[in-house]
Design a protein that fits this description.
The protein is of the alpha+beta class. It is about 35% helix and about 30% strand. It has helices at about 35-50, 60-95, and strands spanning about 5, 25-30, 30-35, 100-105, 110-115, 115-120, 125-130, 130-135, 140-145. It has a three-stranded antiparallel beta sheet with strand order 1-3-2. A three-stranded antiparallel beta sheet has the order 5-4-9, with no helix packed on it. Strands 6-7-8 form a three-stranded antiparallel beta sheet, covered by helices on one side. A hairpin with a 2-residue loop joins strand 7 (about 125-130) and strand 8 (about 130-135). The longest helix has about 35 residues, at about 60-95.
Length: about 140
């Protein structure tokens, strides 16, 4: 879940909206308040509803807040895309080892043999060698064709 700091110029006091009522993902650290996207929108809407109609929010401030929200959404999308790419790359590397002989150290034990299959555990590819799951990071030597 994406979070971002609440800008210092955002009015933090509204009688109808309590920051204490937000979810546990809202945390204050180092003088900054971190909100997820939904919480940010709730706060922004409450701020708009509670503003004095004769003294509306500065348009520059409002546009900065909307731009911040758009940036956070783009960063979250980019992060997910990179995670998917990384996972796909690791799976392709593991698939390239099918039928090859490897040597690996798994929990201090030496594992040697042919890679029979590739399985995903917790989103990470593992090579199956003699019914032993071996992560790509544990492979020390690759031989054969």
């Amino acid at each position: 879940m994406s979070t971002f700091p609440l800008a210092a110029n955002v009015q933090r006091s509204t009688s109808a909206f309590s920051l204490a009522s937000t979810s546990p993902s809202t945390t204050a650290t180092g003088g900054e308040l971190n909100l997820n996207q939904d919480e940010f929108l709730q706060l922004l809407l409450a701020q708009l509803e509670m503003q004095d109609p004769y003294q509306t929010m500065d348009q520059n401030t409002f546009m900065q807040q909307l731009a911040t929200l758009a940036n956070v959404q783009q960063i979250a999308t980019l992060r997910q895309t990179l995670e998917d790419l990384t996972r796909g790359n690791a799976l392709a590397q593991a698939g390239g080892l099918l039928g090859r002989q490897i040597e690996a150290a798994v929990n201090g034990q030496s594992v040697q043999g042919q890679v029979n299959s590739v399985v995903l555990q917790d989103g990470q590819p593992y090579l199956l060698v003699k019914d032993q799951a071996v992560s790509l990071a544990e492979v020390q030597k690759i031989t054969g064709n």
